[in-house]
Amino acid sequence: MNFGFTETDGKRTFYFHSAKEGRKVDLISKTHSAGFELDTNYELHEGETACEYSAGFLSIIGTGHIEFVEDRKEKEAALQSIMFNNTGKADWSFTYAMLNSVCVFKLEVEQIYCKEHL
């Protein structure tokens, strides 16, 4: 799942987007609590045999409080964050129709653990 993030005054927030319907949306509506795992910098390390294959990665695991983003400006900022994290580019334009066609939610991190495997 694509994600973006912000950190303000030591408070970490992850942003995600999805369709407006589905199991994920139903679960968020009921619990407002979520566990998460985010992997980045994946790199396959090839070997001569199957057991010699490995991978390098950075992994972030944690829990948090999750809410839907309804405010138009916050939704646009969340989508900007997601696009920046995935493309490295800023200043995307989102039409009213684009903003209304997608569900955006934010996860405010309560616990976080990180792992790096080179």
Topology:
Elements lengths: L2 E6 L2 E8 L4 H9 L1 E13 L8 E15 L3 H16 L8 H6 L1 E15 L1
Antiparallel strand pairs: 1-2, 2-5, 3-4, 4-5
Give an overview in words.
With 118 residues, this protein is an alpha+beta fold. The chain has a single domain (3-117), classed as Roll (Pnp Oxidase, Chain A), CATH 2.30.110.10. Helices cover 26% and strands 48% of the residues. It has helices at 23-31, 72-87, 96-101; strands at 3-8, 11-18, 33-45, 54-68, 103-117. It starts with a strand and ends with a strand.
Using brief descriptors, characterize the structure shown.
single chain; 118 residues; alpha+beta; Pnp Oxidase, Chain A; 3 helices; 26% helix; 48% strand
Could you give a quick summary of the protein structure above?
The chain has 118 residues and is of the alpha+beta class. It has helices at residues 23-31, 72-87, 96-101, and strands at 3-8, 11-18, 33-45, 54-68, 103-117. The longest helix is centred in the C-terminal third of the chain and has 16 residues, at 72-87.
The CATH fourth-level homologous superfamily: Electron Transport, Fmn-binding Protein, Chain A
Strand tally is: 5
Number of DSSP helical runs: 3
Task: Calculate Rg over CA atoms.
Answer: 17 Å
End-to-end Cα distance, whole Å, is 22 Å
Helix content: 25-40%
Average of the residue pLDDT scores: 94
Helices and strands: which structural class? alpha+beta
CATH topology: Pnp Oxidase, Chain A
| CATH C-level name | Mainly Beta
